[in-house]
Amino acid sequence: MRPVVDGLDKRYGDRVAFAGVDFYNSANAPLAERYGVTGHPTFVVVGSDGKEVARFRGYIEEAALEAELKKVAGS
Q: Phi then psi for 61, rounded to 5 degrees?
């Protein structure tokens, strides 16, 4: 999934912030708990208001993830 995310970051990085979080690292436990991440890969799309827009667990097609990014990035 890393190549997919990297490609989307190149296309939307000026409008969307991407954050990779290692939820196995105990220092990241509060963030994982906040967003209910219990496995990987998990993608949480959060709007500018801090509310969750979409959530994907496991493998996801690039087009589906991109569609959600367009919603928060304003195309």
A: -70, 140
Question: Which pLDDT tens digits describe the chain residue by residue (75 residues)?
Answer: 888 888 888 988 888 888 888 888 999 999 889 888 888 888 888 877 888 888 888 888 899 889 888 888 875
Helices (H) then strands (E): counts for the chain: 3, 2
Contacts of 33 (CB under 8 A, 6+ apart): none
Question: Would the CA dihedral through 21, 42, 52, 3 be positive or negative?
Answer: positive
Domain ranges of the chain: 2-73
CA distance 32 to 35: 5
Quote the pLDDT of residue 75: 59
Query: CATH assignment of 2-73?
Result: 3.40.30.10
Cα separation of 28 and 66, whole Å? Answer: 25
